[in-house]
Amino acid sequence: MPVIESVEAHDIRFPTSSTLDGSDAMNKDGDYSAAYIVVRTDDPGLSGYGFTFTIGRGNDLVTAAALQWAVRLIGRDVRTVAGDPGALYREFQSDSQMRWLGPEKGVVHIALAAVMNAVWDLAAREAGKPLWRLLTDMTPEQLVDAADLRYLSDALTRDEALAILRDQEPTRAARVAELEARGGYPCYTTSAGWLGYSDDKLRRLLQEAVDSGYRHVKLKVGANLEEDRRRLRIAREVVGWDAKLMIDANQVWDVPEAVEWVNALAEFKPHWIEEPTSPDDVLGHAAVRRAVAPIGVATGEHGMNRVLFKQLLQAEAIDYLQLDSARLASVNEIIAVYLLAAKFGVPVCPHAGGVGLCELVQHLSVFDYVAVSASLEDRVTEYVDHLHEHFTDPCIVEHGNYVLPSRPGYSAQMHDASVAEFAYPDGEYWARR
Amino acid sequence: MPVIESVEAHDIRFPTSSTLDGSDAMNKDGDYSAAYIVVRTDDPGLSGYGFTFTIGRGNDLVTAAALQWAVRLIGRDVRTVAGDPGALYREFQSDSQMRWLGPEKGVVHIALAAVMNAVWDLAAREAGKPLWRLLTDMTPEQLVDAADLRYLSDALTRDEALAILRDQEPTRAARVAELEARGGYPCYTTSAGWLGYSDDKLRRLLQEAVDSGYRHVKLKVGANLEEDRRRLRIAREVVGWDAKLMIDANQVWDVPEAVEWVNALAEFKPHWIEEPTSPDDVLGHAAVRRAVAPIGVATGEHGMNRVLFKQLLQAEAIDYLQLDSARLASVNEIIAVYLLAAKFGVPVCPHAGGVGLCELVQHLSVFDYVAVSASLEDRVTEYVDHLHEHFTDPCIVEHGNYVLPSRPGYSAQMHDASVAEFAYPDGEYWARR
């Protein structure tokens, strides 16, 4: 039986600010980064890889925090850890000294995400399955035991969670077959719409998106209303009026400003407005939603934890729930959010992009369709064509779909050469600068 | 004109877990800790001191984060920094790479609190005034410029904030005189009520509190209902039925459990239930409040930022707002929360205890009474008799009142000997262990 022998934590930063990839109204110059965790066992063929995503400065803090969680894995039996990730998760979350630093939010929480992502990757590799398959082979009881349901019982009881999963259990295999037949899980692209791009580049990238089969595209807005109008006009010229056009303000507005600005763009018929205001503002999102309908409201990439999502659902504040695979504390918390969303009938359209988020969310979306929501209606998962070359099992997107991953694990492993080159500050790239 | 020449960040930990000081249902073994920042100028007589509070592990992460903010102060002119702390605060908050790690919550946010606390201490020392005096000598415009009003305008506009402050401006001096005449600002004590204490110790400490003039005492609850009943019965025997008896669950319950448990203790007529559930759960607190009235609901020591407090007020979720001086990002964010509370007519009863929080909140409560709320009704500030000996200007509590601080600054400076002894892990105390 393999035993966890050592762990590593790497501060990896990619110099994306130099090309304005990822530029938006709030985040003008991010260097896409990962706090990257490797869990090694005494079996040379079995390791776990996980990470969380940041945009540069402070990634060292997250890496240090993740290492503090990760060292506690050393000496543990892989089967025990992999057999009950819920027990491990609860043990980590019950460290009251670390909890004080959140609780369950910010640096310690995303650091826990990195570590638990590595644990889930390890569990899937040990089982010889891609993560989505590991999850969809678990019983409803096993899934609910793994899920973090603390603080949720006023909205979702354990019995309700079990009932949702049991309803879909008999037909799981049919939905796996259906996804494989249709070519994968539907996605949309944000690659075209960063604020820093010129009109020509915007037009060219949108055309490429349409030509590649995308029926949803997304543009960043919120820095300048007249420029937003010009760029949305270009977008509609290129993609037409049948495609869904989403807009994303990345939290730059107060609530009244959000309402005014979004309504000023209504003529372009946005499918949703994403992150209109502070990600913490449940009541603010509810107010925006009431005021901009029929434009939908979407948020979640900065949704700090399941308690925030519970409230967004209770307050009828969102039309689309955009959980983040590296900000929520891994699969344990994500299962709970999917179950909440199913209970409230709100589609989950996960946030992705960054570094490696696409690699993770492809597994989660398949899990949702197969085991939880059993619906593709209004569901589309983000895809951004950046930085996949650094992963050993990069996601494959064809004709606007994530092709189902087939290799064991959570697709979270980076190439050793990428780690060596972009480790901060001593990797080859940063040492050269 | 003095210039900031160097900064220091110290990880200070006090071994409070050995005596169960500070034990509650969630936090059983905290080592009260401070991420302590010193800002030195080229004037040997002028430095600024600030900190944030944690309970042990991870304090190194906060210290490291605080240092990343603090080094940006080096080379700046003290008058410029002290003359417009709002500009500095906004500059720090607009670092989008650091912002990603919250935003505005968790490790980076409390680290910013430590640094801005040092900046406000420096500003008060440079002016030769205690912080409360510095603030109550500022014009309404200056206070509003210093305040962080971002994301609040749906609940509090800049004009409304100005109007609140202008209403109270002409009578500020009278309220300062009144506080001095009455012996200070009213406080209550939690020193008696930690969960780990024996019944005899509980009884003795409660009697001491009553004998010292306290009319409010607080007990920790939530680990065991029968023990809670026994301890509350003892408390009522000692303090009688005229004193206010508060109870504090430190977030251990889900919402339905909170309602049930608190109502099961209703016979002891608690004044408030503090932290009944997750600190992030605005709607949960509102539900608890509706279900346990007339028992009041209080929360805020883990209130992550002003957006959370805005919603607690909008949702009518709380009867008492317990902001924390080291979790909110210093005076800039705290002014905003006081103004919100005044707008909604909810009394602010700051959280204190820990390390040095009493030293800070005494200034804030005086500011509130003199410049913002102009009311003492239902207002009482926490006091815990721990660890004050480590501060050069410790708070003075007499007859249940915080005596108004008179020395320049924010009372945040620790003795050099305390820093040397309790620095972690290399200070004398920890090196011995």
UniProtKB/TrEMBL annotation, chains A, B:
Catalytic reaction(s) noted: L-fuconate = 2-dehydro-3-deoxy-L-fuconate + H2O
Q: Where is coiled-coil annotated? A: none
Give the protein's cofactors. Mg(2+)
Enzyme Commission numbers on file:
4.2.1.68
Q: Which Pfam families match?
A: MR_MLE_C, MR_MLE_N
SUPFAM superfamilies with a match to the protein in the record: Enolase C-terminal domain-like, Enolase N-terminal domain-like
Domain named Mandelate racemase/muconate lactonizing enzyme C-terminal: residues: 199-295
Domain of life per record: Bacteria
Do you know which PANTHER family this protein is assigned to? ENOLASE SUPERFAMILY, MANDELATE RACEMASE, MITOCHONDRIAL ENOLASE SUPERFAMILY MEMBER 1
List the protein's name. Answer: L-fuconate dehydratase
Taxonomic source organism: Glycomyces mayteni
- Give the taxonomic lineage as stored in the record: Bacteria, Bacillati, Actinomycetota, Actinomycetes, Glycomycetales
